[in-house]
């Protein structure tokens, strides 16, 4: 087969809003064919079954990460299994802000693929972390990623918030989208990503659980750093002040309230 034919066939199979760069990434991950191979229209050997599978999945709008098995986050490629939330670019801001704070120990609530926790461990080699994830496939994915990046000895993976332990940092990108907003959420999220990763019964209750836990498990100078959406911001602010937390919000590049940093002292 010719590399250009591979590119053109996958381009036609994907929806028009998928950028060419995504198709190039796809053929590189799945078939080991580079953009230069396409430009030079090299002869390539492509597994027929894999070729048909990718065309089918693209036609069904299956997210790129579930086709390749990877998603890039904070400069690294993380394994992502179907059934595990795909880490998002905007969550990199959470990691960036966390790394400005001093910490040795941290807890990541709702770790998903482990992208946040493992990025923190790699960027802060002296740190130790606990990753809390309710989904079994999420725990498995975090374990694979921890092994891939050789941080498994510094990361405990658990299914519920641990009774013991004090943390300098409690971080989370929890499920925070209210079911009232179901219609507004992208089709591919609703069709393919785990709903419990996105829609909680009550978003404010999730934040309340994290903050209540933080009252007894955050070290005195520690920080709670949360990804939020603008519409929960005022409820969260009330909740935080009722529990005695100082509160600060950072906007994302689109000027939406996105990251909330809480502390016990100003
Ligand atoms: C929005 S996803 C974030 C995943 C990952 N931290 C990231 O940013 O890519 C929320 C995660 O929280 C997990 N989760 C939901 N409810 C939970 C609970 N009660 N305890 C632990 N994890 C939970 C979901 O399974 C999902 O993996």
TrEMBL record:
<dbReference type="InterPro" id="IPR050320">
    <property type="entry name" value="N5-glutamine_MTase"/>
</dbReference>
<keyword id="KW-0949">S-adenosyl-L-methionine</keyword>
<dbReference type="GO" id="GO:0032259">
    <property type="term" value="P:methylation"/>
</dbReference>
<keyword id="KW-0489">Methyltransferase</keyword>
<dbReference type="Pfam" id="PF05175">
    <property type="entry name" value="MTS"/>
</dbReference>
<dbReference type="GO" id="GO:0102559">
    <property type="term" value="F:peptide chain release factor N(5)-glutamine methyltransferase activity"/>
</dbReference>
<dbReference type="InterPro" id="IPR004556">
    <property type="entry name" value="HemK-like"/>
</dbReference>
<feature type="domain" description="Methyltransferase small">
    <location>
        <begin position="82"/>
        <end position="178"/>
    </location>
</feature>
<dbReference type="InterPro" id="IPR029063">
    <property type="entry name" value="SAM-dependent_MTases_sf"/>
</dbReference>
<dbReference type="InterPro" id="IPR002052">
    <property type="entry name" value="DNA_methylase_N6_adenine_CS"/>
</dbReference>
<dbReference type="InterPro" id="IPR007848">
    <property type="entry name" value="Small_mtfrase_dom"/>
</dbReference>
<keyword id="KW-0808">Transferase</keyword>
<dbReference type="GO" id="GO:0003676">
    <property type="term" value="F:nucleic acid binding"/>
</dbReference>
<protein>
    <recommendedName>
        <fullName>peptide chain release factor N(5)-glutamine methyltransferase</fullName>
        <ecNumber>2.1.1.297</ecNumber>
    </recommendedName>
</protein>
């Amino acid at each position: 087969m010719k590399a250009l034919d591979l590119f053109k066939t996958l381009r036609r199979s994907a929806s028009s809003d998928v950028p060419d760069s995504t198709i190039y990434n796809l053929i590189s991950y799945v078939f080991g064919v580079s953009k230069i191979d396409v430009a030079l229209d090299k002869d390539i050997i492509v597994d027929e079954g894999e070729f048909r599978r990718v065309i089918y999945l693209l036609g069904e709008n299956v997210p790129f990460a579930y086709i390749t098995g990877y998603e890039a986050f904070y400069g690294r490629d993380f394994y992502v299994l179907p059934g595990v939330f795909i880490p998002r670019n905007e969550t990199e801001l959470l990691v960036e802000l966390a790394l400005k704070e001093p910490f040795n120990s941290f807890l990541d609530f709702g770790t998903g693929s482990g992208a946040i926790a493992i990025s923190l461990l790699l960027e802060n080699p002296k740190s130790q972390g606990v990753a809390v994830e309710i989904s079994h496939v999420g725990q498995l994915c975090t374990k694979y990623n921890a092994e891939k990046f050789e941080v498994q000895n510094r990361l405990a993976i658990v299914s519920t918030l641990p009774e013991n332990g004090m943390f300098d940092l409690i971080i989370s990108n929890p499920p925070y989208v209210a079911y009232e907003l179901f219609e507004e959420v992208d089709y591919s999220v609703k069709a393919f990503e785990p709903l419990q990763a996105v829609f909680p019964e009550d978003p404010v209750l999730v934040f309340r659980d994290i903050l209540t836990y933080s009252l007894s498990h955050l070290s005195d100078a520690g920080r709670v750093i949360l990804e939020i959406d603008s519409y929960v911001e005022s409820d969260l602010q009330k909740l935080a002040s009722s529990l005695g937390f100082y509160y600060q919000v950072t906007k994302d590049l689109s000027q939406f309230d996105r990251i909330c940093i809480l502390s016990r002292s100003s």
